[in-house]
Every structure is written in C-alpha cells, then in structure tokens.
Amino acid sequence: MLNYQFDWSTVTSGKYFDWLASGVKVTLQLSALSIVLAFILGLLIAVMRMSNNKPVRWIAHAYLEFFRNTPLLVQIFFWYFGSYKILPTAVNDWLNSTNFEFAAAVIALTIYTSAFIAEDIRSGVLSIPKEQMEAARSAGFSYLRSMQYIILPQAVRLTVPPLVNQFLNLAKNSSLAMTIGVMELTYQARQVESYTFKGFEAFTAATVVYVAISLVITALVNIYNEKVLNIHKAA
Amino acid sequence: MDQFFNISVIADNFTYFMIGRFPNGPLGGLGLTLYLASVSCVLSFFGGLILGLLSISRFRAVRYPAVAFINLVRGMPLLMVIFWMYFLLPALFGKVAESQTVIMALTLFTSAYMSRIVVAGIEGIPKGQTEAAISTGLKPWQAMLYIVLPQGLRNMIPSFVNQFVSLIKDTSLAFIVGVSELTHVGTQINNRTMAYPTEIFVFIALIYFIVCYAFTSLSRWLEQRLAWRKAI
C-alpha cells in the first residue's frame, strides 16, 4: 500500500474516463427506465392490494411478499437465465432481438422495486382519511375513479419522499446488473481496474459518482419536504 | 426438456444446495448464507451501536466524521463496498479469505444502516428520562448506557430483525467474489447441468423466500407484541 503510485489521470481523462462516463450513462438509463416502469407497476399492485376483491388482494399480497423477500441478484439471474421457459415464444423472440442483458436487468429491477413502491404508495393512501373515500363513493364515483381522482393525487404527494428514496436504492441496486454483463458504472470501474491495476482510482471515481447522485437527490428531497409539504400543511 | 419442471435436478443436488460439501469439505449453500448473515449481523449490531452513538455525540469533532462516514456508506452500492474490501483488505493485511472479505463488507455496510435504527430508537425515548437520570446524579454517558439504551434497544428489535432479513438477501452478493453461498451454488449447478436454469433459480428464490419470510413474520409479531406491552 505504501509504495502505491497514485495516478488520477487514468480516470480523469482518456480512454478509461470514457469507459467510466459510458458506465454512468448506462447506470442512469437503467435506473430512469426502471423507476418509471416500477412506479406504474407499483401503483397497480398498491391499488390491487387495497381492493375489496379477496383474490385480487391476495394475489397482490403474495406478489409483494415474494419479491420483497427474495434477493435481487437471484431475481436477475432468474430473468436472465431462466425466464425463457415461462415466457411466450413471441416475448422471447422480441427480448432476444433487443439488448437482452439490459432488458433482463430492467425487468428484474422493475419488479423488485415495484414491490417496495407499492408498499410506500399504500402507506401514503392509508394516511388519507377514510372519509375522503366515503365522500367520493357517495358522490357517485366508482372505487377505481375515487382512487384515480380523489385518493391517489393526494397520496402520491405524500409518497414523493419515499419514492425518491426508492429511486436511490434502485440506482444503487442497478450495480447488480454487472453480474449479467450490463456495462454500467460498477462494471466499468471493475474493467478499468483489471486493465490498469489502478483499482483505487477507479473505485474512487465510481464511489464519488454514486455518492454524488445520492447526496444531490437527498438534498432535493429535503427541499421538497420543507417547501412543498410544509406549504401543504400550512394551507 | 422432457418435462416442464424438472424436479430431479433439485433432488439430486439437495444436500449441496443446503450445506455444500460439509462435513467432508467447507460449509456452503444455505448453511454458509446463514453463517455469513449471522456473523455480519452480530458484528454490525455493535458497529451500528457505536456509529449511532457517535453520530449523536455532543462533540462536533466526533459527530461530523461519524455522520460523514454513515452518509458515504449509505450512498454506495453494497457491490461497490465489497469491491473496495476485496481490493483494500489484501493491500492492508496481506491475504484475507473471501468469506472474511464479504463479512467485513457486509458489516461495514449494514453498520451504517443499523446506526440509523439505533438513533431512531434512542430518539424514541422521551427526553424526560435522560433529564431525570441526570438529575439523580448520573453522568450523561451513564444515563445513556443504563437508562436510555436498555429501553431504546427493546424498541429497536423489530427493525434489527428486518435488517437481518436484508442481510440474508445481501449475502447473495458474496457470489461475486466466489464465496460458495446459496446463489453461488445455484450458478455452479446451473453451469454444470446447463439445461435447468428455471428450476434452479426458482428453487433458490423459494428457499430465500421461506427463510426471509419467516424472519419478516417474526419481526411483525415482535412489533405487535411490543406495541401491546407499551399499551399496558
């Protein structure tokens, strides 16, 4: 360690910088695409979880428990190696025609994250007074329409901070995609290390990017909490 | 591909999935997963306790570095922490076994999360307790150690169990440095048999699910019990 020669120029310029930069790009693409899909899926599961229909509720509950209590890595491996048997041929053909590593990572991250998002949305909805739903129903809205126009718009506002946290988790979790060969940030840092033996520099660069993403977004959540939710409370 | 779900690949390798080559060889499979999770859990309990206490210290010189460290680790993916350890530990201490690298990484990572649980648990105890303790003549550290922590720790138990569940899931990342825990065993058998990835990964997912769900339910039960005890 003591006779280690630091060479920061390895990661701040040239080919290896380009590798890391492309890794950052893939990490952000993977996280952004997955969070959007996970939000939509999570919303659906949350609504199913609160449905009055017992089988629907039970399916949503089983989905939540299963995907929350299984490691993401195993889920990634399942979608990457094992999903072809349970998916229809048309879907398999389509997946193979795309960048399958990336697609498998998106599917796994989406499903894993949606289970956590659904619970966040549900606790947001549960914090909306029950009378709101009763009033909406008595005003003639159906259950789904009451959810859509009355409950969810209010709940989603409260759910923004935990959702942003889920996005942070997702950005960090996306590093697992390297195990199936998605060339995201951690993959590239590892790659730079094996080509240059400058592991300290490469890992520092990747760590700085991850921590920067996390600090910036945490700061934004704090601002949102103070400005938006406080204004909401005062009004 | 003679049948849709081939059970025999699971049945043939069942012992290997559960305990690896133990007792004739090193522990592996689910046994190693639970071993890694348990050791890291105990270590990160103490790590989290120390970090948590440091991060609410009255002295800025203590508090700031602790908070900075916690935020640094919480901002990093666990995989990154494992690579750091994998790279740094040999440079600092010479040869380190892979499983120890993983235990160190999991401990460091989980300690940062545990510290937040500890802080929340301490903050959940009314201020009056500390004030009363100090007015009876205890020093601030004695008030923390003998009055606040024993009560706070009890409230933290459900969160600790949840963290243990996360740890069990996180041990799957030990796969990346070649520690033969459950996920690694699964990929190994998958590479050897080639034809049954669906069966193998569904089976592994189910095992993780059974173990994790048991602990999740335990944590919920404890939470209810604690709420009930507080109510009387």
UniProtKB/TrEMBL annotation, chain A:
The lineage of its organism: Bacteria, Pseudomonadati, Thermodesulfobacteriota, Desulfuromonadia, Geobacterales. This is Amino acid ABC transporter permease. It comes from the Bacteria. It holds the Pfam family BPD_transp_1. PROSITE patterns: ABC_TM1. One of its GO terms (cellular component) is ATP-binding cassette (ABC) transporter complex. It is found in: Cell inner membrane; Cell membrane. Signal peptide: none annotated. It comes from Oryzomonas japonica. InterPro entries: AA_ABC_transptr_permease_3TM, ArtM/GltK/GlnP/TcyL/YhdX-like, MetI-like, MetI-like_sf.
From TrEMBL, chain B:
The chain crosses the membrane at residues 32-54, 66-89, 200-222. Residues 30-219 form the ABC transmembrane type-1 domain. It is found in: Cell inner membrane; Cell membrane. Keywords: Amino-acid transport, Cell membrane, Membrane, Transmembrane, Transmembrane helix, Transport. It is a multi-pass membrane protein. GO terms for cellular component: ATP-binding cassette (ABC) transporter complex. The complex is composed of two ATP-binding proteins (GltL), two transmembrane proteins (GltJ and GltK) and a solute-binding protein (GltI). NCBIfam families: HEQRo_perm_3TM (TIGR01726). This is Glutamate/aspartate import permease protein GltK. It comes from Oryzomonas japonica.
